[in-house]
Design a protein that fits this description.
Blueprint lengths: L1 E2 L11 E2 L2 H34 L7 H11 L4 H14 L7 H25 L33 H27 L19 E3 L19 E4 L3 E2 L15 E2 L2 E4 L12 E2 L9 E5 L4 E2 L4 E3 L3 E4 H6 L7
Antiparallel strand pairs: 1-2, 3-4, 4-7, 5-6, 8-9, 9-12, 10-11
């Protein structure tokens, strides 16, 4: 149960609770509105009583109204007594009904306003399939900062769990892409803020590498562009718009001649796993914000390729 109305974005304080507690919340809101209306009516009657009080002599109808305001228990009771008073004094006071009419209309308006407020108080709670989630179990899976041969005990168990988790995510992602990236709304695919993150595809893109690196500079090059992805709208992260993050990524895929840039197969050495093999592709150095940290572009690890399948990404 999501306590929010309007768009998919929470426009203010938002509370996510179970439907069972939601029913109790709606009942409490109705009682609270009724109690607030009763207390407000008491304040209104007190204010009117004080304003209407005067040292100037008044007739019996005026004093009768003052008694009703002073001893008012509820707007409905006061309304009934005002109607009786106006009828009883119709022959003994001048303009009895017109003099009682403002107080009668005030009681009717107050009663109607809080009756509607009680009815509409339930509308602040709405059952939706979108909820706010905050859990201590959400986050990234932290892999041990050690080489595989040095892992032991709890660190080895954690590394093994990370590998299993990575494979499970890969399988789940593949199934989700196959079932949910379709044209129609599919049951079971409404677990995220958006069923799909749409992207554009350019099949006539230019080769992003130097001349003669691509197998065909004119055909076979595809460029995928995610477009702007808003953290609040597309990813469902509940933040004000001014704090939202906009992410965009572009990926160009092109068949290239790999053989001239590929190393020979290199066997395991040092802390590598026994029997592991490596293949290095030299299309450019790997760099970070400050310097180069590897003279190859990609490393193919025979062991990792069989055990550590990462999810697909755009």
């Amino acid at each position: 149960m999501l306590v929010v109305k309007g768009t998919n974005l929470a426009a203010g304080a938002t509370l996510t609770i179970h439907p069972r507690e939601g029913t109790l919340l709606v009942a409490f809101l109705a009682l609270f509105v009724r109690m607030a209306g009763s207390q407000l009516w008491s304040l209104i009657c007190f204010a009117l009583h004080q304003v209407r009080s005067s040292r100037v002599p008044q007739d019996g109808l005026h004093h009768q109204q003052q008694v009703l305001l002073r001893n008012s228990a509820s707007q409905n009771r006061t309304l009934l007594e005002l109607l009786r008073t106006s009828w009883s004094w119709r022959r003994n006071a001048k303009r009895a009904l017109p003099r009682c009419l403002p107080l009668i209309l005030l009681a009717v308006a107050h009663s109607a306003a809080f009756a509607l407020a009680g009815l509409f108080s339930s509308r602040v709670a709405t059952v939706l399939d979108e909820v706010l989630v905050r859990s201590e179990y959400c986050g990234y899976f932290k892999f041990p900062n050690q080489d595989l041969p040095d892992l032991e005990g709890a660190s080895f168990d954690l590394a093994n769990a990370a590998t299993v988790n990575s494979r499970a995510i890969s399988i789940w992602s593949s199934n989700y892409a196959r079932e949910c990236y379709v044209d129609q709304i599919t049951p079971g695919c409404n677990i995220f803020a958006r069923q799909q993150l749409l992207s554009s595809m350019d099949r006539s893109a230019k080769c992003p590498f130097a001349e003669k690196v691509c197998m065909d500079d004119q055909n076979g090059v595809v460029r995928l562009d995610s477009g702007p992805i808003y953290s609040d709208i597309h990813l469902g992260i509940n933040t004000p718009r001014r704090d939202a993050v906009v992410y965009r990524t572009a990926l160009t895929c092109a068949p290239i001649w790999a053989t001239p840039f590929t190393s020979d197969i290199v066997g395991a050495s040092g802390k590598d796993l026994p029997g592991d093999r490596f293949l290095y592709y030299y299309f450019g150095e790997q760099v970070n914000d400050t310097s180069s940290f590897a003279n190859y572009t990609y490393e193919y690890d025979d062991y990792a390729a069989r055990t550590n399948l990462l999810p697909y990404k755009l």
